[in-house]
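User: I'm putting together notes for a lab meeting next week and I want to include a structural view of one of the chains we've been expressing. I don't have a solved structure, so I'd like a prediction I can at least talk through. The sequence is below, exactly as it appears in our construct file.
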Amino acid sequence: MPSPTDGERFEFAFDRRLRRPLSLLGIRPDTCHALITATRLVVRFGPWTVRSPLENIAGAEVTGPFPSWKVMGVRMSMADRGLTLGTSTEQGVCVRFHRPVPGSEPTGLLRHPGLTLTLADSPAAARRLEEIASALSRPRRAAIR
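Assistant: Thanks for the context. Below is the predicted structure for the 145-residue chain, given as structure tokens.
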């Protein structure tokens, strides 16, 4: 597991109204963050962890606001199997992957093509992930020519 000094760390935004019910699931500010290391995106959300190599990131954008029932805790979209790790209704960052990633259940059988995180600085996280996706896709495009 990377240490907090190994990369860029983004904290989750916690809506005051959601703090108590989320804490019952082990989801608290001290157990939740997104970490971008030199090679991976690692998201810790209470007892859940989502990991992906950076080259698997296809893009990212800011989304929201959301109704509370759509972002409270861990939620999988039945429409596209996207995973939401939510703590706030204001905004989030939606990360898209080239290859779906495990994260909602311990066996890894369910895989998610996208991940929405309600981070305190979602615009900065989205910019950074988009920069990474763009930089890593350039060599791949050049090799195809």
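A couple of points you could mention at the meeting. The helical segments are 19-23, 68-71, 122-144. Residues 141-145 have pLDDT under 50 and may be disordered.

User: Perfect, that's what I needed.
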